[in-house]
Amino acid sequence: MPVGFSGQAPVAMRISSRAHYGLRMMTELAKAHGGPPLSLAEIARTEFLPLAYLEQLVAPLRRAGLVEGTRGLHGGYRLSRSPEAVTVLEIVELMEGPVAPVECLAEGYRQGSCQREPECLSRPLWGRLQQAVKQVLGGTTLRDLLSDPLPLEPWCPGEELAVSFKEGAHV
Questions:
Q1: Nearest-angstrom CA–CA distance, 95 and 28
Q2: Sequence spans of domains, the chain
Q3: If you classify domain 17-166 with CATH, what class do you get?
Q4: 64 CB contacts (<8 Å, ≥6 apart)?
Q5: pLDDT digits over 39-62, tens only?
Q6: Disulfide check for 37: which of 26, 31, 54, 76 has CB 3.0–4.6 Å away?
């Protein structure tokens, strides 16, 4: 059971600690954008995250060109792009891979691999969920997280999205 969640039922769908911690690290770098680089130790201290884990997470962020590192006494990391140019979807997909709530919606899935595919009535629902998640994550930048804290209440797709689903749009 996750720390701080004693006595609660397990969560069916959730973001991994890898994506969650990666996003927390990136928000710290976004806060410092335009200033001196931040050390991973500073980020770990501020966000109460394990330094060794941040050291593992920064490598793929560097390879993807989202952060750049500076060596030396006053070295550390900074964003390679402005906070408004980095979406949460980029970070989540980099840390976890493409968003796919079920295997039959994952990249690389071969049509017909599931024997239930022709009569599966739940696949369109999972496709709509996938589209909604990608819309929210892709429409949220690091700047959005810094400048306008999002409400904690559940997000519902806008009327435009709901209409496209009602009209039978394919996911």
A1: 17
A2: 17-166
A3: mainly alpha
A4: 90, 94
A5: 999 999 999 999 999 999 999 999
A6: 76
